[in-house]
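quick one before i forget lol
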Amino acid sequence: MLADTAGASPLYTVNTPGGVVWGSSALALSPLVGGSVDPEWLAAYLRDKHTPAPGRSAWSGVTPVPAGHLLTLDAEGGTSLAPWWKPAKRTPDEVSAALRHALGEGVRVRVGGAPATTDLAGMDSTTVAVLAAQYGPITGVTLHPTGVTNGGDMEYARALNVPGLRHTFFPLGVHHLPFTATDFALPVTDAPAPSTSVWSMFSEQLRMMAAAGSVCHLTGDGGDNLFLPTPTHLASLARRGHWLRMLGDAMDWARLRRQSPRPLIAAALRGNAAHIGRSVRPRPPWLNVSVPNVNTPTGTDPDTAFVASLRNAARSAYAEIQLADAFGLALHNPYFDGAVLDAVISAPVEQRYSAHRYKPLLADTFADLMPEAHRKRAAKGVFVGDFHHGLRVNLRRVLRLADGRLASLGLINPAPLRATIHAAALGAQTVWPPLLAALASEAWLEAVERAPGTEWEERAPAPAGVR
């Protein structure tokens, strides 16, 4: 079995008395080995959801097959792993041709003339929508606050006039705020889903699209990971002695983000590409247990850090696909396709990294399909304020989560978690990833308890010669 390059279509194995069993869902395989959540994986997720515990899944005894590897099962029940993919290098023209083919084919095979929808917001989802419209009909869905009908994503969506693409707008009200309870219970997934905190909004959007007849929804997820990476190339420039280029790029990136260039330069000189441009977050004050070593790549190779970052994002996004399954909707993330990763990582550094242009590789590759305003767009709608508002409105409900299953497992200390929730509700500057990871984990554990487990049936092998 081949585990795909980007890790977006996972494979797992379990060792049973009858031999090795493999499958695409850790949740479904887990009853074969006890059906219990892996506390070490969960602790690593709470420490930093972007650096999972190596070689583990969210379920005890369920082992992930590394992305880009071939899993072989022998007649004696043994297994072996071997890498089947490694990055290639292409010229700039070859990169654009490969990316255009990979993303275009990824969209085409999913739409195939069936009623489908796409996100329609920033450059990534807009590119997917334009490609999908070639095989339409396709409906682009743009989210906006209730009562706000101009500006932002709305303005760009209305300005996109493409044959085969029609628009629909999804107004967001108070009942869509993050952390709001909904009448559609959160489905159980292989691991906590990134959209758990916005399930009230996401579930209604999925329900709306399914009710309108859509059988397939395409997102722009993964586009930021591919085309707006951190400047890990600075370590490679430092290693090769390209000091002026390294210093110039570091200054440009720092100026763009309104920060000091010193951390970027220092990280480049230390030679660990994975830490360049990535905030080193302190241990969450509510985490109550020690955490295994995280799977953070080291070294000066920016490609290694780039691939690891994309694979972690793709792994998390698989839970979103499982959420959409509950509505009979096939959710797809074309930017997480292995062929797209293979095309992007083959690009020269100059084509992938820029502090002067927004996502230059994507903009240049699809320049003939995108209107100029969309090619030059350098931002998209953000909803950070909604998270503070959502906590204020739903404060009692969220505070109850702090004293739930994670606390019972001894993984968190509720007092500092409650303090952080109170501060965020008041609008204090908040480091959201660890807080959202804790709240998503609590909601996920509740879904695990509520959902019926997978039942496996053992069947005798067929007699020789009988199929």
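fyi The first strand starts at residue 12 and ends at 16.
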